[in-house]
Hints:
This protein is α/β, with parallel strands linked by helices. It has helices at 50-53, 89-96, 113-124, 137-142, 144-156, 207-223; strands at residues 24-25, 38-44, 62-68, 74-75, 78-79, 102-107, 128-136, 161-166, 172-176, 183-188, 200-204, 227-228. The protein has a single domain (38-228), classed as Endonuclease, Chain A, CATH 3.30.870.10. Strand 6 (102-107), helix 3 (113-124) and strand 7 form a beta-alpha-beta unit. The termini are far apart. Mean pLDDT is 83; it is low at 72-81 and 228-232.
Amino acid sequence: MSDFDFDLTPTASTAGDPDYQTARQLSSPLVYARRVARREFVSGLKRQALTELIPTLPPTDVDLYVVGNGAGAETKHGVNLQAFDFGSFIPHIVDILGGKACVAYISTWTMNAQHAKSMIDMLDDGRLARLAVVTDTYFKTRESAMCNRLIDGVQRHAPRARFLAFKNHVKCIAIADSTGDRTCVITGSANLSAQPRCEQYVITSSPDVYAFFVTAFFERMFDGGAETVHKR
């Protein structure tokens, strides 16, 4: 089995567990305003590895805007090291933040096998101390075998790993180093999948932005503090 194989053989369903899905939604929009000292811009329209394009995090008072070329990191025969997609940021940022005992919060509509496996691998080898993943219910119903495998990995590492599905289209990666002193947040248009489209990303190392997403969105959903919406 290669480093990027992800066994999708059906297993006993864990994705149907009500603890992993909720009808909760935010009762009101979340808004965070911050004054930015500078904005920097990077075009990834040519083929470049993520390590070459973004070798370090921007300063805390700088927002970095990136346009990807749509090549995608995953190919039919493995991984294209001269391209990247949204999920490629996770191991790259973890490495920048020390490569050990990081905390990651991940939000996506859906994801592919490569990135699902990569997150569990990072829990296994200690690069991640904690992981929280939220997706749309689409991922549970339409990619159920993959979702079950992800949840299997989450359960092996519980309670330091968590998963929740709800009506979600937020694309956000929020990662902190082992001390919590250095953080990174990436938002954009892409899912954790190898879509052959140009995508845009915004990268910030502002601790305030990290705290906003973690507290106001991720932990609020996991803690049940959002309003439950009932269909009529």
